[in-house]
Amino acid sequence: MLNSYQDSLAEVSRRRAFFKNNFDNYKEIRILFESENKERSFFIAKYGKLLPNNFIPNIGFMLPDLPSDEYFKADYNLPIIEGYH
Question: How far does Cα 57 stand from its chain's mean position?
Answer without folding.
Answer: 26
